[in-house]
Amino acid sequence: MHQQPPDPTRSAPPPADPPAPPPRILVVDDDPTVAEVVAGYLDRAGFRVERAGDGADALARAAARRPDLVVLDLMLPGMDGLEVCRRLRARGPVPVVMLTARGDEDDRILGLEVGADDYVTKPFSPRELVLRVESVLRRTRPAPAPRPPSAAGLTADPAARRATKHGTELALTLREFDLLAFFLRHPGRAFSREELMREVWGWDFGDLSTVTVHVRRLRGKVEDDPARPRLIQTVWGVGYRFDPAVREAD
Length: 250
What we know:
Layout lengths: L23 E5 L3 H13 L3 E5 L2 H10 L4 E5 L7 H11 L4 E5 L4 H9 L4 E4 L4 H15 L9 E2 L2 E4 L4 E4 L2 E2 L4 H12 L4 E3 H9 L7 H14 L9 E4 L3 E4 L1 H5 L2
Parallel strand pairs: 1-2, 1-3, 3-4, 4-5
Antiparallel strand pairs: 6-7, 7-8, 8-9, 10-12, 11-12
Helix pairs in contact: 1-5, 2-3, 6-7, 6-8
């Protein structure tokens, strides 16, 4: 049976899109043993890992090629982790998971205040750290939403990771954005801090002051008068409620 020669005019199917490269993680710790263990676990979890031993090195590496996430030790020689976090956040919304050996709650809150998205207290389980890194990265990926949630002049677009107030873009950290988007999707409902930690952070346990700090920071960016918040209201004995009806009734 005679076989027809291939038709040269028939176009070949387009090549498949190459798989996305794994996220790049910058590990910043002056303790080589800790850095090696953390980097090893992250590497085995499928991440591309780069290491820096101090703050100046970390900032230089981040400037040369922005990482997808930074694992940052609080106690660094010279420039401490808080200052490194401030400078990283000033350059753009890079997620930061902070490592701290301190047991003082004020230090953990200060880390959140300067823009850290999560923290792990030493000594820690490397596997727990990997789970925290994966959780933060998961929340940075665009989520399908046919219409960005909006109310009271506020809009949060998950696909663009962009929030606006009356059309003006808000400078929110990743967690602040997640918290605002959650409130916008659930107007008028009161949530406890435990519920917010579970729904927004994905944690079943943790320091509830994390929620308090982020609500205070978010109020400072969305309220006309943060000292007398009207949109994000405290429900005594329960937690917080986003009430856009207050603004819309004005």
